[in-house]
Structures are given as structure tokens and as C-alpha cells.
Write a structure and sequence with these properties.
19% helix; 42% strand; 8 strands; 4 helices; alpha+beta; four-stranded antiparallel sheet
Amino acid sequence: ISNGESFSNILLDFGIDYGVIHRIANNYKEVFDVRNLRSGKQYTIFAENQDSTQVARYMVYRPSAINYVVFDLRDTGNVYLGEEEVTIKEKAISGVISSSLYESLIEEGGSPALAVELSKVYAWTIDFFRIQPGDYFKLIYEEKFIQDSVFVGMGRILAADFHHSDRSFY
């Protein structure tokens, strides 16, 4: 969705008249309010050829990687919400800190989100400004995927061992 583009602008370009647009926008506010379409978000139009023009039959809007909204533009119209199936995979990571925890996690294949979650786990236990080279970590955590391959976020940290100042913090 481009900046300034609206639900009606999109659908008018695909042969949907104002009456259908108005009916969907007003009758299905409780399912999804079309004023919540945001620029930069993805949508897909499913259309069919009628005479020499393309007429939209469905519009699918993706407010996030996991959630989507289907606008059925045929006849009386309908709107419903859908959600991609999320697969959770357990992963393990370990490493020795050479400069910073963040850099060590990234070097071992972790994500910035994992560094944030780990700092939350140990927020009241470890002073991360006093981490020394040679401290190490071992983690088991979850990552969320759709279609088994598209990463959509961190899950929980299931287990952690952080070794700092000759002590292990589990």
C-alpha cells in the first residue's frame, strides 16, 4: 500500500464500484476497519478478466507476516480474518564472549531479538556492562516460522546457562 492510497482507490482501479466498497467498509467494521490499512503493508488482488478489463474478486491484506484479512468482493461481499500456521522450532546456541554479548550471539547465528530476550531473562541477575571476555552462554530457545521457512519472530527462551565471574546462572 502506497502512502495516501486507500481501500477505495485500490478497488476502483479494479472495477469495483462505490456501492460495494461502501457496503464492505461499513458492514464489516467489527471484523476489520478499512481505515486501518497502513502504507508499506502488502496486499494481493485476485481478479478475473471481464471484457477487456480486470475485475477484482478478492483482496487479501497482510497487516503482519502471520495475520491476513480477506475481502470477498463478489455479490454481497464478506470480510474474514485469517492466520498463517506458525511452526515453532527449538534451537540451541552457545558461545564464548570475546567483546560483547550481542556480538557473540550474532557471530554464533543468533538474532538481535535473542540478545534482547536474554537481557530480559537476566535483567536483575547479571550486570551486562561488567561482562568479561571468556564469559560464555548456552541457550535453548524457540523461533517461529510460517511455511516452515519464513522466520516471523522469537519464541521463548526455554533454558539458559550464563557463566559470568566464575559462576553459572541458570
